[in-house]
Amino acid sequence: MVEYAFELENGRKIGFKVLFNRVHENSNVPDAYPQWTLLSYKKCLNCPLSEKEHLYCPTAVDIKNVVKEFAEISSINEMNVVVRVNDRTIKKRCDAQTGLNSLLGLLMASSACPILSRLNSLAKFHLPFASFNETLYRTVGDYLIKQYIIKNDGGVPDFELKGLEALYRDLTLLNQCFLERLKEVAKLDSSINVIANLSSLSLIVQFSINERLKAFRELI
Q: Which SS3 state, helix, strand or coil, does residue 31 take?
């Protein structure tokens, strides 16, 4: 479990506990969640889920409480953020967008979405407020560990990172579609800016992953 605590300048406090392997008890109950969480509502173009079997988008349900709490908070609002991960406590003074970027990134990566669930292992080793290079290093490292395990199990590993490039293509499209979903519900810009930022990150990695990795040559 990972805990996020936000303290706004007006003294308001908002807290979230992120559990892994989340189960939504009302996942097939009509009107249990807001309309914008329906799978059919601005559904991602590359979503593999069937609307006959899934009433709601699992990722939308996961982030609905965060979107609700921050719907009227501007992305530039300053706040104190405290994150508790296992036996570590991380504190940061930042704007709402930075804090939300870290929390929503974790929620999305640990969701039951068939595309985002490929990031579940990264979520379990969550690094709050990670920089671009930290995220890239962790993502590639995570992928290569999986390939090592596949090789040891007798499978065919992908050390050329072709599968990782394909994943980021999927993430780019997913984030762009999810942004359209959120535009209808976020009254200000915090949640929208976060998804837009995640989409930009996916594009950057997708189109320059090999070039970006060259920068690490001097560090290892």
A: coil
